[in-house]
Amino acid sequence: MINHEVRTYKSSENLAREDQLAWKIASVATDPVAVDADVADMVINRVIDNASVAAASVRRSAPTHAREQALPHTTPAPGATVFGRPLDARVSPEWAAWANGVAVRELDFHDTFLAKEYSHPGDNIPPILAVAQHVGVNGADLINGIATGYEIQVDLAKGICLHEHKIDHVAHLGPSAAAGIGALLKLPTEVVYQAVGQALHVTTATRQSRKGEISSWKAHAPAFAGKMAVEAVDRAMRGEGAPSPIYEGEDGVIAWILSGPEARYTVPLPAIGESKRAILDTYTKEHSAEYQGQALIDLARKLGGQIEDLSKIRKITIHTSHHTHNVIGTGANDPQKMDPKASRETLDHSIMYIFAVAMEDQGWHHEKSYAPERAGRPETIALWHKIETTEDPEWTRRYHSTDPNEVAFGGRVVVEFEDGSVLEDELAVADAHPAGARPFARENYIEKFRTLAEGIVTEAEQNRFLDLAQNLADLSAADVAQLSFVVEGLEHSGSKGIF
């Protein structure tokens, strides 16, 4: 890897294109280095993972509305598939990216990477796959495109913090998806450079989408970034340009949106000829909740099984990282996180609620655990309101550690009882994490797909999809065009909009 220093430049300094971060990203995307076998295997896992959560969410409101928006945008063959729809019901690729992106993101249940910035790199897959289907790309090239999207998003997340400036993490997704599409199509570096700049420029937004009363836009935001990436590549292929230099310019992203004209960032990127392996640094979710909740759900299940009477608890304190405390904990100062009538998206970002339910149920379910009647149980509310979080500098340090033996996304929990006794335990990473008690492997991804697709996708259709996905490297373009799943009797809401 090469560590690239990124800073602002005055317009009079005339920063050369080859010295700009967008060009360096484009150079990585257009480097024809082979994809390593273990990387290709993990790409397959994440294609299955995306389909799992999309199947579970396909009838929910946000994915349904996104699908209804997409369906009028039909296109002459080949087009791209939409999750749940017949395989021959094709739409324009940017709209397939939109509909499928919302379905994938709706339940907050696919993969994650946490470093200086947060990310869900599986959000790269819907736009890259949609373009692959539309232009007729084979499985090997699709794997390369997805591996590239993951590489760029992970590297940007390692080098540039967005959330400290209240910028949403999808600002890294626009450039990474554009780079992945560029790699997929084997475009010239100049074209990808322009697409990366355009995609960044139009996908930078604030984090209010994840603050206060969190709405369904949380699921739409990455889908919008993917849709914008498809359109950016299309424009760049036609010869249209982007603001330049987009990161380093005097009025660019660093100077006015991030840390300012004096800031210095270090972004690691593979050298030319070096394999793109960043997907192996990422990890998926066993539970449908914010990633910082994964280890704490596992710990809550354990503690809940050790306590005979939860009503005897006086107080629970979760000692954890700055991010967990301030984003999904009491440090956010969001009263909505303690409200039993809050939206699913808000409860998903309340570790107090999540921990209480996981203790009581000694498990977690992507629908039942968020049901209004579940959130409204008096005993749950009582326990929930006894829980608070506090930042522990050591957990914050470990959260940001680059040492795989030290990195931690969990916390230490202290349970105080009415009789004065105390129960204490801690867990650094989720059981399903690569360093956890039982890391996810191919069979776990398949089990997750079958579990979430049960009762929604027929067994025969599950088998057809899994057979294609597991043979992704050998698929023809015609096979890639079938890489989706059909839901029989999929109904629509009848909502009315412009389209």
From TrEMBL:
<dbReference type="Pfam" id="PF19305">
    <property type="entry name" value="MmgE_PrpD_C"/>
</dbReference>
<dbReference type="InterPro" id="IPR045336">
    <property type="entry name" value="MmgE_PrpD_N"/>
</dbReference>
<dbReference type="InterPro" id="IPR036148">
    <property type="entry name" value="MmgE/PrpD_sf"/>
</dbReference>
<comment type="similarity">
    <text>Belongs to the PrpD family.</text>
</comment>
<dbReference type="InterPro" id="IPR042183">
    <property type="entry name" value="MmgE/PrpD_sf_1"/>
</dbReference>
<feature type="domain" description="MmgE/PrpD N-terminal">
    <location>
        <begin position="20"/>
        <end position="264"/>
    </location>
</feature>
<dbReference type="InterPro" id="IPR005656">
    <property type="entry name" value="MmgE_PrpD"/>
</dbReference>
<protein>
    <submittedName>
        <fullName>MmgE/PrpD family protein</fullName>
    </submittedName>
</protein>
<feature type="domain" description="MmgE/PrpD C-terminal">
    <location>
        <begin position="287"/>
        <end position="473"/>
    </location>
</feature>
<dbReference type="InterPro" id="IPR042188">
    <property type="entry name" value="MmgE/PrpD_sf_2"/>
</dbReference>
<dbReference type="Pfam" id="PF03972">
    <property type="entry name" value="MmgE_PrpD_N"/>
</dbReference>
<dbReference type="InterPro" id="IPR045337">
    <property type="entry name" value="MmgE_PrpD_C"/>
</dbReference>
